[in-house]
Write a structure and sequence with these properties.
Layout (H helix, E strand, L loop, with lengths): L5 E3 L2 E3 L1 H33 L4 H23 L5 H24 L5 H12 L2 H9 L5 H18 L8 H27 L1
Antiparallel strand pairs: 1-2
Helix pairs in contact: 1-4, 2-3, 3-7, 4-6, 4-7, 5-7
Length: 190
């Protein structure tokens, strides 16, 4: 099998360079997935020692300080509409993270991660409701398949959700709708 010449970052590349770039991309995705999955274990362990409200407040306070620093460096003040959109999204995200941290007190980190992933799929339906963007049949089929897989991996005996699992999946509804609100705002700004 003969290797092809390709382009890496817009520059002609040798076959080894293209493969190397693909390997780096796959390695970066694997690392990001491990980091994302590891946060569920870290939060589960943290809520054993710190109240969920304190943990979430500390996380969002830290994020707020970093965001304020970015705005200061960019020397750009958000508009009133951007403040309102950010406040709505922030309330939905804080609520979602709080319920998830609370849920991690009574469910496994793995179940919470799978349910979070499955719950995020609801974004397509929020987009349909809020932005009038109907999901395609292929997307609906993919969502159904992903939900079924998450259910098989996460549901307890008798195919039921425990209190911890319900707390883990409910926040994704708020988080998904918050993301859609941000997309909606970004679309209006274009």
């Amino acid at each position: 099998m003969r290797a092809r010449r390709g382009r890496v970052a817009g520059v002609a590349a040798e076959p080894g360079d293209v493969m190397s770039a693909e390997r780096r991309a796959v390695a970066a995705m694997v690392f990001a997935t491990l980091l994302w999955g590891g946060t569920f274990v870290a939060i589960r362990d943290a809520v054993a020692a710190v109240p969920p409200a304190t943990l979430v407040a500390t996380r969002f306070l830290g994020a707020g300080v970093l965001f304020a620093l970015v705005l200061a460096v960019r020397r750009r003040r958000p508009t009133a509409e951007e403040y309102a959109g950010g406040a709505l999204s922030g309330v939905l995200m804080v609520g979602g993270f709080y319920l998830q941290a609370l849920g991690l007190r009574s469910t496994s980190a793995g179940s919470s991660a799978f349910l979070t992933c499955a719950g995020t799929l609801l974004a397509a339906f929020w987009a349909w409701l809020l932005l009038r963007e109907r999901p395609s049949a292929r997307l609906v089929a993919g969502i159904a398949l992903a939900m079924a897989g998450s259910a098989l991996l996460s549901l307890r005996a008798g195919l039921r959700l425990g209190a911890g699992e319900l707390r883990a999946v409910c926040p994704r509804r708020g988080s998904s709708s918050g993301k859609i609100r941000l997309w909606e705002h970004a679309a209006r700004r274009r």
